[in-house]
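2 proteins. here.
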Amino acid sequence: MFIKVMFGAGCSVLVNTSCRLVNLTAHLRQKAGLPPDATIALLAEDGNLVSLEEDLKEGASRAQTMGNSLLKERAIYVLVRIISKRERTWPPPAMSPYWRTWMTITQSWQGPD
């Protein structure tokens, strides 16, 4: 069974979910250029977030859980990186050159309190 996973700016990949979850997540991290320790999830078309890290069945180890036990066949998902408070930097590094401009514009629209 296959799913389509979208990530980045117009990037997508077909993924076979008939494999162990640990292999599936490693492959998605590699394709998206994420570090091996990044926490990821998949956002389904219906708005449900499927955690690939924590939604494991009781008593099953992460290495033995299969991807097709969590994901729907032939569905489209969006890859989401979960950033914990420890990892968060402010302002976001990718947006820092424009962050101050955006904040200034936003504050000017709000007007004086």
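next one coming up
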Amino acid sequence: MKQICIIVPVYNEELSIDTFFNTFLKFNEALVNKGYSASVLFVDDGSKDKTQPF
């Protein structure tokens, strides 16, 4: 199985990170059906909100 890693920089994304991740999960399901495996790596650059605990 081929692997894909998506690196996403985040900064104060508390309100949108859940939506992004849920969309990624649907995307990942489609990839698995085509023989791929995907992961996502969030890189937080000092957010002042609650992005980091995600």
